[in-house]
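Hi U.,

Before I forget, here's the chain from the pilot set. I'm dumping it here mostly so it's searchable later in email.
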Amino acid sequence: MRALVLGPIEVWVGDRQVSLGGPKPRTLLAALLLQPRQVVPVERLIDLIWDESPPQTAGALVHTYVSSLRRAVGKSLVTRAPGYLLDVDSDVEQFNKHLTTARQAERADDPATAITHYQHGLALWRGPALHGVESAFARGHAMTLEESRLSAEEGLGRCELAQNRVEDAIARLSSLANAHPAREDTRELLMRAFHRAGRQADALNVYRDAREYLLDELGIEPGEKLRDLQTAILNGTLEVAPHRTVVVAPPVVTTQQVVPHHLPPDISDFTGREEALKQVLGLTEGQQERTATPTVVVSGFGGAGKSALAVHAAHLLRKSYPDGQLFADLRGAGRDLEPQEVIGRFLGLLGIPGQDQPAAPDERVELYRRTVSDRRLVIVLDNARSEAQVRPLLPGNANCFVIITSRSRLTGLEGAEPIELGFFNSVISEEMLSRIVGRERIGAEPEAAQRIAELCGGVPLALRAAGAKLLARPHWPLKTLAKRLSDERRRLDELETGDLAIRSSLKLNYSELDPRHRKAFHLLSLLDLPDFGAWIAAPLLDIPPYDAEDVVEHLVDLRLVDVAGVDQIGRVRYRFHDLVQLFGAEQAAGEPATEAVTRLLETWLALVETGVKKLPRVTLGLRPKLQTEIEPDPRLEEDVEEDPTGWLHSETAAVVRAVERAHDLGVDELTTTVITSLLSSPFAARNEFGNWQRTHEVALRSARERGNRRAEAVLLAGLGQLRYEQDDFAAALTSFQQAAEIAAEIDEPETLAVACVGMGTVYRDLAEFERARELLDKAIALGDDGVVAAASYGVGAIHRDHGDLAEATVAFERCVELYQAQDDKRGEALALRALSLCHRAARDFAQAVVLSREAEQILREAGDELGATYAAQSLAKASLRAGELEGVDDLLAECLEVCTRQHDRFGVALITRTLGEVALAQGRDDEAAALLEDALGQWTELGLPIWQARTMRDLAAATANEEMWLQAKELFSRLGAREAGELDGLSATEWRSAL
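Structure:
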């Protein structure tokens, strides 16, 4: 068996590659391989696998990954306190041996032997080391290994030179220098190789390239060794190379001409935009092969730094374009300049006075292009509005380079290279502030500086305005400006200093809006959604969806709306920059919004209902009827029906925010109540507790403000369901009890039945079976078929926990029938899972496996990931009891990851305990004890006594702790659980033997 690390991580047994499982088992393998034959503690493995931010279930997950890895490496993976040890040969060890031998041979002046071992070591590499393992420790080790590889490449080149294999050395070292231009050792060897070959000019070019790169990229000169080598080659004091004839080109004779330098001053504190700058400068290369004028269009949000980038790049290109630089602000003095006016200015700068310029536009363009035809010029056209404005200003040759800036993308300019400027990230934003204000002042208040950068939204103009304000007020602490910017009503005022003003920049584009687009901009700004589809402009403006898309895209063209990306169902999503949204809301003051927002909410309601009908119903949320005349466009309904899960996932954040804003804007609370109730089920299916809580709390506040008691009861029942799903049983009971009291007062039996099911379910989990049964029976008497099915499920669970398996089976079979009659696939599957637990308790393990597998399949088809995870857990448990252990560890590891990701505390505790049971069945008592202790702590925190007792029983068996065994038996007896009878007369050891 051998493990391969120098490339994608792999394990081979003979000529067969073995499967390693998912990313996390591979990461575990890497962590063990990089400390070969050493015990790596579990705590250290947790830090390595999760980059020191592990989930709560990390310990249990490590155990499952170890089990998965053992199937690949067998007995080579050893459990040894306090962790694990891996005893496997790896290619890293082989590589290091070859490298050590090669270096020893090189020191002994034996280049032939060194070459052999360098080659054998390098042949082990199959790609980047640890490829596919993304943890931080792996990236660090990969860099170290890569450094060793490069050192081996250099050693091989050095030995090839020693054996006078000059051309081999040049080929190897040239490739290495191109791939790693900052490595001075490689450059030195390459210079020596060229010199040895008699190619002194090439050797000096290597130095020049190295110096340019180091200065441009790192701001440093080459090291002393490289400088001394260059001097030796220039002085001829290195070994004498074969004579080569140097052909000197004749001097180029040029005529005297006017050289304009018409650029604005460069910015001394220019910050960021490295990639964009590199892209601009890169377009000037390879011009001898071009016939068209190289042209770049830099576009972006107003204030994004387009002009600064263009001017900075033009200054950097002065040496490459020695015949001058021309600049024109095409939106100068508050108006758009005509092309002929700009050409007149350019011709004057090029030495042709106005009286010598033709008046006819075509003749003037012809003279301009003829004048620049043999010159190398940089031409900057700033603030272009359209293609037509700049097209006459483009030279007709490849000698010049044109940089255009525009808020529009100017895609109609043929052959122009587009560069889109986004917003700065927080690091670059803070760097820009420090360059403007001074590092000492920023360093004194780093948190306030970070907050200022955040509130400027990554907009360079905003950052510059903030910096200018701080410079103008040197006595201000940074936190003063941070507080002032935090006030959304004043932020645009604060970002105004002299002629630096975000508001003025935005007004340029806002002034171009016609009434329809202006209204759309106002309403979308008022809603302040995190992102949105173009379709929402349709109900807001009462127009068809395609027209709505055109409206939003026009706002994009004017840089008033950004493209956020593409959603799950392939539609474009849009969003506002924070500063634009504030500007839009400011301009929308007085805009009538109630009718438009009501229309949007009613449309959203209809579409949400269409989607929810297609999904499994997870909660018993009530759905008040709402009379509406809105009929959504069929094209919108088609999007929902094709992929309801994807549509709801894409729209959720926007709907949640719309509910909050509807309340702020005073829109009818019944619409928000219905949307909130409809969304409860998808929120529950995905454990989206934050959004679930936000919508319910806003709608509940609205219902209470308007005295709508029925809506209040409905929403309290929804909050009870939320708290139950969060495993906060006390809060769930409080909400359900409040809902029940109001429903009883206003004679709402439907809401009362739902509240009774909720309370009964909570009391059942708390093992207060008598109170639970009373409430569930009441719900059955009051409720509809959905409530009756849910309550019957609770009654069946009580029978099962008491050991009345026959009664439990009858109750669950009734549930299956009720859910089938309602075409509720999720309910049917959960009832089938419950039946499987009855069969497992009756030791009919084969039927338990069949029912669990059927439940899992139905739930996966229904798109209920969490429900399917519970069915998979019951399948694993039934397989364990049936003695079928193959694949159980992997199945439970997947279950644990799902529950961890969905913050399902009950599920995490349940699966951690099941993993402990598996370890116990396999005789891995230490692992079993660790897992079961973890699970017991979780059950104790949740306050679920029957699960505490079950886990104590298992833990007592794993540790032969008879005292804990007696405590578990006593607790089972006090709760009236079936396990009290099952354990009667047995010791922990006897019970384990009987398993």
